[in-house]
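Protein: Regulator of G protein signaling 20
Species: Nothobranchius furzeri
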Amino acid sequence: MGSERVEMRKRQMQVHQEAAASVLQAHHKMGNTPTNASNACCFCWCCCCSCSCLTVRSDDETIQRSTFEHRPEGNAHCEESPKPTLEDARSWVVSFEKVMKSAAGRSCFRQFLRTEFSEENMMFWLACEELKKETNKTVVEEKVRQIYEDFISILSPKEVSLDSRVREVINRNMLEPTSRTFDDAQQQIYTLMQRDSYPRFINSSAYTDLLKSLEEPPPEP
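Structure follows.
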């Protein structure tokens, strides 16, 4: 099962890369590759938009790091998050909500998702949580654009799995972005993690080993 997931992820990334390269090559031939995304000619970021100014980036912009870019490998490891207490870790088996309300729980679960090549689900959920805290309209619009490009766009290697209904809602919301633009999508990804990944996490050796390490008495000085 694990090898199938790896191969599927590799194929997805190859398709995304080939699609992006094709679009970029086509626009270079047309001579209308944008030089700066801030000069966008429209405020629509949906994948069906005919405007090319936000779907194709210049080389300089491609190099820029996203606000929600993939963090270094170590940053999501359990051992580098706030260490959970034994009581906290044991509570995660009660419900998925317990995991998501715990900083250590989210970190350990995210590390587990990485082993299943679905870490983008947690990254998207966290990005939406940060977006909902923002009140500055200009910042909200920029974060909405970045989240769309990072997790919704079909050209992104971190695209999350959403059904057509939710994508239609997002595309409508993108016309007037707010801090709640991705609410439906966030809920769908939350439910996906809860039903699909959470049971495997609770039954994983990673969770079992964590409990054992917390149950062991500290070494004597």
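Remarks: The mean pLDDT is 77.
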